[in-house]
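Sequence, please.
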């Protein structure tokens, strides 16, 4: 029998709903509850660990249906899935069904022995009767909601380079949803809005661009809190990471126009002449030679007949929405595993589309009020929303219409039961999944790119789209060379035509002449050979010519990055940026949640060592829910270990979680941004206290835990000897070390180039740290970006560094670089570099040695 789990902010609410549902489902029905938090004085909230335990408690092989109340309940439930064994996730369904009506309807269906899918459909349909009954009032209520509610306001200037594009808008919607408040947003600059902040479509189609002023208004019990959280989010540029800010800014400066694919049927032009070069925009580096693989046009027919049974039609649409959500979650997990969490986040935007009232309300009105079939009502709702997006005068935002259409299409295909495997392409086109060659398409959505098999698809060429489109972003992350925006002429290329694609120059040569093909083929082959050779040996240790083992580890942000790191041959994790767990959450992760997250990384590493860096927020990484004072100079402010010592409860929870995992996995702990020995002493005291308290509770802890510090503040580098008695290892954070040595903000494009870690002055500091570490018998690693730079590797080894930690993709070639290094020569090179007068001279020396 299917079991149910109820996730609520309040334990009482969860118990009450469970009682009601239990009456309907009979004695055998198992209902788990995950309500509230164990925090005295602050009992309201949700906790992924608790949700995972509730699922385990009621586990049934027939499946578990999870119902949630609002906001963070959804995130906690999603996070709980990650905490459970993979085999179980398939049989757990999260439903957006209303909590009370849904639980009661699901209990009845489960009690009758229905399948998981049937139980979920019952739960989702639970509001049907109420919706039909109240449809006129609901429409009126929505119209009122579109007007700005009364209440406090907040005026903000949006500073993101690309405005409120999909991900920042999604973050705004999620932030607003956490509070018991009606929030609206208006674009003061253009006069658009107000729009409900509960709808991604509504917020995004306000067309908010960089520099626009917005007016946020909130009403309800938590209006002030909602505005404060939105202010924090805006201060953090709506959560855009620095690289996204830089990319979006570069695209905006280059004035790149992102054209959007129109109807597929009218796209093809005459075939371009042999030898012609189509100039597009470089979207993903690399060279590809192969034959064109056109996507087949297979438009989906939408039946025109009116609905025969509006209840059944609506239930079918709800099933299609659930099935699409499943597909999207699967694609998200696959992309997170291959490319990391940031790139996978676009699928969170896709999930928001599925619950957006701007699509659901008109669909509901179409089915129940206008007698439309579910497919017709859904297509009309998506088209209307897409038209609103396309009317925007912001090219970046306009490009997001592709995401909306892609999701709309996936739902439609589920609804009409059109074979998704055969027809997985954009806007009614399909990719011939197994065929090798260069995929030629009008435009590719992230879902399309996620579905490409890099073993068969050597390149991607798009007539439309831009390098900032999420399809392009994903292609980059997956390492598939791509050119976009090559123009309509590309669509005249016949299937099977030989093509040469240069992802750096942004060109596609049609039927290339023999000489051009040879040159490109040579370059491509050389690069591919190097990479393949490196990959073949990636799992072997990296040993220098003279027999010294160098550990090559990966920098990761969470469990999602681990499979790629292991596949790339990582000897462990040299830097777990634990702050990403905190940055992704909308609440402070509990000790249990942290333990689950760290344990998942350790398990994924299969016995390889894990270096866990404690929370390094502050500076460019802010946690809105900590409500910290805004600093005038955050790079020099309360970041890293300073924050942990100012708020010992934060650091203690993290250290307790780390100790619990270290009881049965090789975990080390590393403190960031250390400037003084006293900071290490105090951090160690907290660690000792955490250990004692765990022992007192009867919890297993390791005999000993290795402790290290990041050396990234010049003060620590200059007095490194003083730290030796207090630590087991050092890891040089050369990104920050260079920033602080040159007083040049690493996130400011105007000065970032100054902070070059290859400069002799930084090398001198590394030299000092390596010498002191060697004299004291301590290990010394580098985990800044330079660790993965082939030019820097021999230098670092020559300076005495014994471990390098880097992005997973760089590991195979880095190992090759180590194998090509002779330490005696590397030491001479390092000595020459230390004596050099400029960074250019160091580069010349290293380049010469490499040649
Ligand atoms: C560094 O500063 O070099 C480092 C590795 O840490 P982060 O980039 O996370 O600041
Ligand atoms: Mg750092």
């Amino acid at each position: 029998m299917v079991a149910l789990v109820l996730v609520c902010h309040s334990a009482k609410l969860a118990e009450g709903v469970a009682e009601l549902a239990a009456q309907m489902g009979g004695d055998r029905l198992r209902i788990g509850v995950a309500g509230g938090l164990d925090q005295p004085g602050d009992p309201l909230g949700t906790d992924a660990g608790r949700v995972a335990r509730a699922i385990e408690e009621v586990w049934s092989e027939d499946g578990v249906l999870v119902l949630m109340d609002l906001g963070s309940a959804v995130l906690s439930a999603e996070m709980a899935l990650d905490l459970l064994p993979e085999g179980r996730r398939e049989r757990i369904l999260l439903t957006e069904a209303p909590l009370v009506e849904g639980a009661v309807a699901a209990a009845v269906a489960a009690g009758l022995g229905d399948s998981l899918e049937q139980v979920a459909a019952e739960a989702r349909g639970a509001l049907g009767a109420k919706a039909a009954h109240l449809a006129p009032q609901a429409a009126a209520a929505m119209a009122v909601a579109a007007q700005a509610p009364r209440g406090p306001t907040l005026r903000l200037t949006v500073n993101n380079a690309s405005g409120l594009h999909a991900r920042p808008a999604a973050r705004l919607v999620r932030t607003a949803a956490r509070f018991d408040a009606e929030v609206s947003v208006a674009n003061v600059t253009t006069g658009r809005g107000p729009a409900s902040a509960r709808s991604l479509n509504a917020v995004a189609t306000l067309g908010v661009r960089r520099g626009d002023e917005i007016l946020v208004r909130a009403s309800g019990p938590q209006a002030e809190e909602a505005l404060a959280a939105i202010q924090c989010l805006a201060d953090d540029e709506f959560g855009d990471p620095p690289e996204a800010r830089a990319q979006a800014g570069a695209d905006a400066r280059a004035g790149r126009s992102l054209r959007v694919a129109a109807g597929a049927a009218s796209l093809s032009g005459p075939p371009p002449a042999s030898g012609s070069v189509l100039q597009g925009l470089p979207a993903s580096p690399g060279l590809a030679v192969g034959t064109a693989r056109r996507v087949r046009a297979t438009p989906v027919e939408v039946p025109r007949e009116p609905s025969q049974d509006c209840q059944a039609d609506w239930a079918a649409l709800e099933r299609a929405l659930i099935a699409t959500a499943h597909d999207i979650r699967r694609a998200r997990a696959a992309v997170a595993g291959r490319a990391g969490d940031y790139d996978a986040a676009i699928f969170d935007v896709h999930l928001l589309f599925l619950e957006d009232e701007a699509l659901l309300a008109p669909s509901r009105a179409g089915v129940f009020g206008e007698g439309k079939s579910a497919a017709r009502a859904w297509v009309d709702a998506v088209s209307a929303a897409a038209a609103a997006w396309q009317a925007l005068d912001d090219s970046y935002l306009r490009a997001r219409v592709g995401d909306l259409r892609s999701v709309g299409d996936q739902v439609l295909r589920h609804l009409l039961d059109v074979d998704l495997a055969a027809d997985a392409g954009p806007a009614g086109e399909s990719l011939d999944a197994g065929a090798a060659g260069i995929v030629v398409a009008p435009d590719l959505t992230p879902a399309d790119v996620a579905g490409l098999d890099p073993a068969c698809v050597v390149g991607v060429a798009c007539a439309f789209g831009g390098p900032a489109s999420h399809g392009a972003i994903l292609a980059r992350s997956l390492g598939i060379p791509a050119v976009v925006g090559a123009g309509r002429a590309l669509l005249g290329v016949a299937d099977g035509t030989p093509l040469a694609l240069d992802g750096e120059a942004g060109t596609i040569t049609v039927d290339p002449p023999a000489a051009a093909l040879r040159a490109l083929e040579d370059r491509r082959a050389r690069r591919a050979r190097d990479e393949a050779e490196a990959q073949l040996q990636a799992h072997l240790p990296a040993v220098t010519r003279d027999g010294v083992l160098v550990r090559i580890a990966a920098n990761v942000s969470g469990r999602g990055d681990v499979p790629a790191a292991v596949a790339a041959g990582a000897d462990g994790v040299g830097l777990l940026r634990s702050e990403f767990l905190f940055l992704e959450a909308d609440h402070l992760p509990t000790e249990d949640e942290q333990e689950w997250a760290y344990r998942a990384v350790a398990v994924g590493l299969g016995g390889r060592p894990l270096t866990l860096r404690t929370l390094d927020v502050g500076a460019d990484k802010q946690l809105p829910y900590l409500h910290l004072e805004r600093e005038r100079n955050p790079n020099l402010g309360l970041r890293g270990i300073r924050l942990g010592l100012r708020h010992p409860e934060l650091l203690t929870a993290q250290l307790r979680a780390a100790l619990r995992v270290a009881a049965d996995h090789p975990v080390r702990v590393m403190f960031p941004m250390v400037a003084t020995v006293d900071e290490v002493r105090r951090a160690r005291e907290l660690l000792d206290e955490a250990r004692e308290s765990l022992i007192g509770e009867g919890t297993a802890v390791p005999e000993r835990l290795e402790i290290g510090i990041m050396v990234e503040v010049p003060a620590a580098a200059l007095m490194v000897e003083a730290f030796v008695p207090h630590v087991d290892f050092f890891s040089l954070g050369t990104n920050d070390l260079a920033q602080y040595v040159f007083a040049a903000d690493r996130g400011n494009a105007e000065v970032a180039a100054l902070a070059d870690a290859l400069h002799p002055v930084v090398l001198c500091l590394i030299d000092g740290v390596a010498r002191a570490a060697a004299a004291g018998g301590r290990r010394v690693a580098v985990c800044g970006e330079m660790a993965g730079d082939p030019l820097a590797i021999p230098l670092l080894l020559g300076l005495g560094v014994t471990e390098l930690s880097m992005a997973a993709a760089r590991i195979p070639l880095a190992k090759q670089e180590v194998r090509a290094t002779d330490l005696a020569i590397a030491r001479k090179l390092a000595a020459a570099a230390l004596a050099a007068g400029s960074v250019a001279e160091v580069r010349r020396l290293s380049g010469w040695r490499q040649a």
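The pocket of magnesium ion (ligand 2) is lined by residues 712, 733, 735-736 (CB under 6 Å).
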